[in-house]
């Protein structure tokens, strides 16, 4: 009897040890700061920057918390395509259609672009033209997470705005579609330096926001995707009764406006909306990560923060590269060469500090 009890105790200890080893493998490491960026970049030139942005977004979200997901997604779509340079904000020109015109970006919230421009105006009114649209977009995404109930964290700053937008083909090649499977996600994001844990953590951004029926209708028609829960399917078919409907639904059915780990609980219950979501639980390479995040929100938050810091530094422009735009939707005019920190104001005069 004592021997059986000892064996049971030993097995339990070994199982607990295995779980701890698994979680240790998921411990997040803070990414290094990219050359030219700094956590104190605007300490002298715009010390009130982060207060201005957070206070304004708090007002925006008090009226419509749904805008938080729009700002988070905008940052993703900016960084994945030629780096975090604010190029997704640019309008098209004689050189061709902008990134906004590419199919994956057609469902970016129009109000998100308005919010960024309003933040840009407030910041430049307070600090002259010292802060880039790329940095404002990155800070807005961070605050969208924080003000929705997610973790608070700092991000390195000092990005410059890009001078050109990416072509449609480049945009499409760098934004994995919602019908992508885990292999496609892992391969695509590995090229940008992300490991499987990063990929699963970043996918957790789908814990807030909405999706259009056309993004997942292939899982509903002509019949139910077998990896989808039957009741979940029935409810979605009510929202999306036919192909090509313009209707939308929440990405996370458990807590759609709260940034938490319920998205992973959805996946474990076969209630992920996109193929790219649900396949993270179906695929053996990422299933364990999904499970760990579902049972440990702190672990998810730690890994999400570090993946976001890593993403926010993709191919950044710094120093004398790029520019500080006077308007986030278009390049500056034919200004004379101006040193960083001495950009021209909208009236054409060099800002003084």
Automatic annotation (TrEMBL):
Residue numbers marked as site, Transition state stabilizer: 73
GO CC aspect terms: extracellular region
Residue positions of the active site: 77
Location of this chain's protein in the cell: Secreted
Signal peptide location: 1-28
GO molecular-function term, one example from the UniProt record: heme binding
Protein name: Peroxidase
Phylogenetic classification of the source organism: Eukaryota, Viridiplantae, Streptophyta, Embryophyta, Tracheophyta
Gene that encodes it: Prx1
